[in-house]
Amino acid sequence: MTRLLRHLTGLSLILALSACALFQGRDPVNISVIGIDPLPGQDLELRMAVKLRVQNPNETVIDFNGVALNLKVNGQPLAAGVSDQHGSIGRFSEQVLVVPVSITAFSVLRQAVGLSQMSSLDGMPYEVNGKLAGGAFGTMRFKDRGTFELPR
Prior knowledge:
With 152 residues, the chain is α+β, with helices and mostly antiparallel strands. Helix content is 22%, strand content 47%. The strands form 3 sheets. It has a 4-stranded antiparallel beta sheet with strand order 5-4-8-9. The longest helix is centred in the N-terminal third of the chain and has 21 residues, at 2-22. The protein is elongated and about 75 Å long.
């Protein structure tokens, strides 16, 4: 019985060490919003194409099979979108992804009320949260923040 217990303990240790080797830490991807273009909408909905530059600072390729993102402006939710595009971002390389997002009339109204309470429109803060879907353990979450200047 002790011999069986010793073998099981040894086997468990070997499996645990090999699992650690499989789940090496990855650096987070770098995301930058590089453009927002209008798309045709329907009724009270606005549509936009958000262009993201995704940089992979890792030694391994990132395979993805879907993109999701949420956009907040001035601390308030503005738009959300998903795309079923798939591909790979090579090791130490970058790619531009375009994700269509929807903006509801309620979100526009909420932003208009928020803008009316601001003393200046300079340095409007935005935040983008999202993920590159890649299976059970391959999903990469991302976040980008910044400010943009509204045209005068």
